[in-house]
Amino acid sequence: MRYKLLGRSGLRVSEICLGTMTFGEEWGWGSTKEESARVFTAFAEAGGNFLDTANRYTEGTSEKYLGQFIATERERFVLATKFTMNERPKDPNGGGNQRKCMMQALEGSLKRLQTEYIDLYWLHAWDFMTPVDEVMRALDDAVRAGKVFYVGISDAPAWIVSQANTMADLKGWSPFVALQIQYSLVERTPERDLLPMAQALDLAVTPWSPLGGGLLTGKYKAAADRPAGARLAQSPWGDRFKTERNLRIAQEVAAVAKEAGCTAAQVALAWMRQQPRGILIPIVGARNVLQLKDNLGCLCVQLSADQLARLDALSKIELGFPHDFLTMGKSYVFGETLPLIDSHRALK
């Protein structure tokens, strides 16, 4: 295990983040406390120090388990949790990004995690109601109070993140240092704006569902392989991955895995780790130790240029306007001089 700087901060985090949405059985598909402890221990023994949870994961059980697991070595771990998700469905302030919800969620997480501080506090999802300045000032207050060390944002439009960090820089508030997004071989739309923005603003990116809801593990090689009504990875977003395009991508991942002598999951994670798109730290989740160890095996996999090209050819997307238009119009801007200009600002 190696370590990366978390975006524009000096915080060192492991190159793989352990997602703990599987810790607890309240949602019908997670792990027992005993198996969760084994997964955590295996990750820690492999050198992992970056842990991701949220206030609503398994209705709070994920945080409770993590708090117990890290208690004897709290200082060693970089603990990340989130707010936004509604904890009181009939209360209009039970969820969202507003200061009231944020502060109440933070206090609840601190109690469940049995800790005095959160290393990285994520805004879980943009609510399109709370003003950006309210969010950034409230997060900065939590940092100044010593209850939070760094802040990040998950599942939000690029223009919101850009506005927020610009405002934080101008006001002297704590900026976002990391961005959490859905990204994988079957979900590459963040390449349009989110990933270039993160690279330009020096934000670390922690992709969730890097295995496409389980599709890229090789579990489903064709539509007929999947039982009627079964959900990929037992998640509400997994079903939409099962398209003919994505099944072809999964088949190519399996073919590359056979060539490379590794598993399909390791190929999918290795592809992500080899993308030239700034700091990418995949979040991997596991319901048992075998799954975790298989995922960690990606650290020993290096795909060839040919293998990367084949996977890219099947999974690439159209960037759309204005990206494609600006690419076509480069000759009108630079004439014949573009090949002669060395630009350190050009994003890949």
Secondary structure elements and their pairing?
Blueprint: E1 3-5, E2 12-14, E3 17-19, H1 33-45, E4 50-52, H2 61-70, E5 78-83, H3 99-113, E6 118-123, H4 132-144, E7 148-154, H5 158-171, E8 176-182, H6 194-201, E9 204-208, H7 244-260, H8 264-273, E10 283-285, H9 289-296, H10 305-315, H11 323-328, H12 330-334
Helix pairs in contact: 1-9, 4-5, 7-8, 7-10
Largest sheet: 8 strands, parallel
Tell me the count of domains.
1
List how many beta strands DSSP finds.
Answer: 10
Spans with pLDDT under 50 lasting ≥5 residues? 227-234
**CATH H level, superfamily name:** NADP-dependent oxidoreductase domain
Number of helices: 12
Distance between the termini: 26 Å
* Strands ordered across the widest β-sheet: 9-8-7-6-5-4-3-10
Shape field: globular
CATH topology: TIM Barrel
Measured as a percent range, the helix fraction is: 25-40%
Mean pLDDT: 93
CATH architectural arrangement: Alpha-Beta Barrel
